[in-house]
Amino acid sequence: MTRLATPPLRSPARPARRERRERWTAALFLAPDVIGLAVFVVLPIVAALVISFTNWNALGSPSWVGAANYQRLLADPVFWSSLRVTALYTVIYVPLVFAVSLGLALLANQRLPLIGAFRTIFFVPVVLSLVVTGLMWRFIFDEQVGLLNYALSLVHLPPRAWLGDVNLALPAIIVVSVWINMGYYMTIFLAGLQDIPREYYEAARIDGAGGWQSFWRITLPLLRPTSLFVLVVTLIGSFQVFDQIWVMTKGGPADATQVTVIYIYKQAFQYLSLGYASAIAFALFLVIFVVSLAQFWLVRKED
Amino acid sequence: MQRSYPLPVTRPHRHVRSPGRWLGTALVYLLCLLVALLTLIPLVWMILGSLKSADEVVAYPPTFLPHHFAWHNYVEVFTTVPFGRYILNTFFVATSVTVVALLFHSMAAYALARLKFRGRDALFLGIVATLMIPFSVTLIPTFILVKSLGWLDTYWALIIPAIPNAFGIFLLRQFYLGLPVELEEAARLDGATPAGIFWRIALPMSQPILATLATFFFLANWNAYLWPLIVTQNPNMRVTQVALAAFSGEHSTSWQLIMAGATVAALPGLLLYLFLQRYLIEGIKLSGLK
């Protein structure tokens, strides 16, 4: 729970010298992080807006072009395709990772022998880097030598180019993203589940409620704050997915997995159009901002 | 965390429920086993792949265990590219970020929780608000800034921008708010300065949460990819993840070498998990705190 500190009390009895010293200490203590946040987080977001109105080749100096980048963006089919891919990724990934990690948390919350060991295993993907994970799965998805195609051949299914097929690459990446993150959100759900008093379930059982009923009537409603947190975080995260896609497909085949951040990266660091890339980044920021606002609004309306 | 709860004294319909419950338990284990397999198979396959010869790794049908363990794959990874240097780079960067960030965040959090000054709450809100700014938007301006400072291909570029982090400040502030004030009051009456109280009392008392955050920050920085990719061109300045991705591009058919490199890159995270599991998981639970 966020609770704001009470406003500073003014006690006239306190010597002014001590107050002054406390203020100086506070300024000194806060300076490094506040300057850091200002320079590396707040300033850049303002700068991103300014740069998006310029034409800036990374080697030369910027020239003001007004709204030209935004006009270009509106007419750029690759930008729209990247937004569509991002939206598609989000629409499938978010509910899937939500359901899977909640399911895992329910499993891992059972008080049965060995469950602790399983919980330990489920968490392992979280500690691997996205690069390692991406490479590992590329090895498994490989058309010729991959384990997946071999497993399919055992049940007489034809091999597929999982990451080379425009229809399969995005679903394959989504599966990997769920695999990466399920242990993380499981942990958060578990913390939420353990806050639900056990007595509620016992009371429900005595009243004759089955497991399914208890889940819908007790677990889900009481898990609401946790669920909302997971939804917000997965949603905002899915708009910014980059690493595992870059490692597995570089946005291909035929832009089928080119989410917006990959397009930003290509424009900025491969084509060196920093101005245009900033315009795309700012457009993405607006999308994320509107979606977050909508979410907060929905939550507030419901409460 | 396992807690023990009193079992209900009476169990109505126990007789009827029993077979259903047995089935339920079997189903739980079955699902657990399935997910555990799905979790571990890619990892095991990576390690097995890293130990196969160049011919065996592409053989069809694939072998499960390597015919003979090709340990030299690991030697080859470290000799074709300076992988040792990359590991040292990453270790240096991740450790520096963690140590400096913990110190700065503790100071800032202590000021926000305990010291009195005007505008404190507004400043805190402003700091928390920076959590809403997506990294993908600040990426390009931060790159330009770092470039104009002449920091590209230096440790500065890898370390300094990674330090500011409102999440760490937020968590430490919560922790300091929960500390009993009596000790600090006593020290104050003895004439200790605010900085002295922080250094000698508050900071030592925050050891548990510092351990949690340290594990968390170190792992995040060990695994970082996009930012280091952007600010390093010189191969000598690469960190492990960037080097591994580059290596996989240059030797895209040598799966045994790629898997050996990936295994090496995965090792610190796995070891951290093995020994500091409690702290890592605590860190994640805290990140869900809202």
TrEMBL record, chain A:
<feature type="domain" description="ABC transmembrane type-1">
    <location>
        <begin position="83"/>
        <end position="295"/>
    </location>
</feature>
<protein>
    <submittedName>
        <fullName>Multiple sugar transport system permease protein</fullName>
    </submittedName>
</protein>
<dbReference type="Pfam" id="PF00528">
    <property type="entry name" value="BPD_transp_1"/>
</dbReference>
<comment type="similarity">
    <text>Belongs to the binding-protein-dependent transport system permease family.</text>
</comment>
<feature type="transmembrane region" description="Helical">
    <location>
        <begin position="27"/>
        <end position="53"/>
    </location>
</feature>
<keyword id="KW-0472">Membrane</keyword>
<keyword id="KW-0762">Sugar transport</keyword>
<keyword id="KW-0813">Transport</keyword>
<dbReference type="InterPro" id="IPR051393">
    <property type="entry name" value="ABC_transporter_permease"/>
</dbReference>
<feature type="transmembrane region" description="Helical">
    <location>
        <begin position="222"/>
        <end position="242"/>
    </location>
</feature>
<dbReference type="GO" id="GO:0005886">
    <property type="term" value="C:plasma membrane"/>
</dbReference>
<keyword id="KW-1003">Cell membrane</keyword>
<dbReference type="InterPro" id="IPR000515">
    <property type="entry name" value="MetI-like"/>
</dbReference>
<feature type="transmembrane region" description="Helical">
    <location>
        <begin position="276"/>
        <end position="299"/>
    </location>
</feature>
<feature type="transmembrane region" description="Helical">
    <location>
        <begin position="120"/>
        <end position="141"/>
    </location>
</feature>
<keyword id="KW-1133">Transmembrane helix</keyword>
<dbReference type="InterPro" id="IPR035906">
    <property type="entry name" value="MetI-like_sf"/>
</dbReference>
<keyword id="KW-0812">Transmembrane</keyword>
<dbReference type="GO" id="GO:0055085">
    <property type="term" value="P:transmembrane transport"/>
</dbReference>
<feature type="transmembrane region" description="Helical">
    <location>
        <begin position="87"/>
        <end position="108"/>
    </location>
</feature>
TrEMBL record, chain B:
<feature type="domain" description="ABC transmembrane type-1">
    <location>
        <begin position="87"/>
        <end position="276"/>
    </location>
</feature>
<dbReference type="InterPro" id="IPR000515">
    <property type="entry name" value="MetI-like"/>
</dbReference>
<dbReference type="Pfam" id="PF00528">
    <property type="entry name" value="BPD_transp_1"/>
</dbReference>
<protein>
    <submittedName>
        <fullName>Carbohydrate ABC transporter permease</fullName>
    </submittedName>
</protein>
<keyword id="KW-1003">Cell membrane</keyword>
<comment type="similarity">
    <text>Belongs to the binding-protein-dependent transport system permease family.</text>
</comment>
<feature type="transmembrane region" description="Helical">
    <location>
        <begin position="86"/>
        <end position="110"/>
    </location>
</feature>
<keyword id="KW-0472">Membrane</keyword>
<dbReference type="GO" id="GO:0005886">
    <property type="term" value="C:plasma membrane"/>
</dbReference>
<dbReference type="GO" id="GO:0055085">
    <property type="term" value="P:transmembrane transport"/>
</dbReference>
<feature type="transmembrane region" description="Helical">
    <location>
        <begin position="21"/>
        <end position="48"/>
    </location>
</feature>
<keyword id="KW-1133">Transmembrane helix</keyword>
<feature type="transmembrane region" description="Helical">
    <location>
        <begin position="122"/>
        <end position="144"/>
    </location>
</feature>
<dbReference type="InterPro" id="IPR035906">
    <property type="entry name" value="MetI-like_sf"/>
</dbReference>
<keyword id="KW-0762">Sugar transport</keyword>
<feature type="transmembrane region" description="Helical">
    <location>
        <begin position="197"/>
        <end position="219"/>
    </location>
</feature>
<keyword id="KW-0812">Transmembrane</keyword>
<feature type="transmembrane region" description="Helical">
    <location>
        <begin position="257"/>
        <end position="276"/>
    </location>
</feature>
<feature type="transmembrane region" description="Helical">
    <location>
        <begin position="156"/>
        <end position="176"/>
    </location>
</feature>
<keyword id="KW-0813">Transport</keyword>
